Amino acid sequence: MTTMLSQIFMHTPKWVYVLFATLLWLGARQLFAHGLSLFRVTLLPVVMTGLSIFGVASAFGDSPSALLAWAAAALVLLAFVLRRPVPRGIRYEPGSRRFAMPGSAVPLVLMMGIFFTKYGVGVLLALHPQLARQAAFAIGISAFYGTFTGLFAGRALRLWKLAIAADRRGSAQAAPAIDALQA
Which residue ranges make up each domain of the chain? Predict the structure, then answer.
């Protein structure tokens, strides 16, 4: 067992370790209170969705059932997350268009989840390539990737909804003041 694990780690490309360290660093930073711009709120889910789709495509090609399982899971989790309230402690500042975010382990867990799923599936397929042709495996793994995508996208869209609502409130409050100045 130890020999097999050492062989797996020795044959892992160097860029995988760089990606792991980068995701670990990005996730660990979010354990502490921090500020995020709208761009950064959007960037992470886009990148993680790309990694998720890459995981499905690299493992199962353009399998319609795998892609459908990924999309279905992503949409279900997206809808679930959008129905949940924004976590306490998150504030949006319309003037700076930035969020004040409390620390959270959720982004780190999601990033590591996608990374280790991709890594584990890669190892499994290297050892047992026939798994890629098994529908149940492809659908299950693809749905798992979709789950991560839905969670990331839902979290970002919730923040966008908060920002849009705050911007609308700011615009509605500013309109009477502008009208008074013009009178």
Answer: 2-167
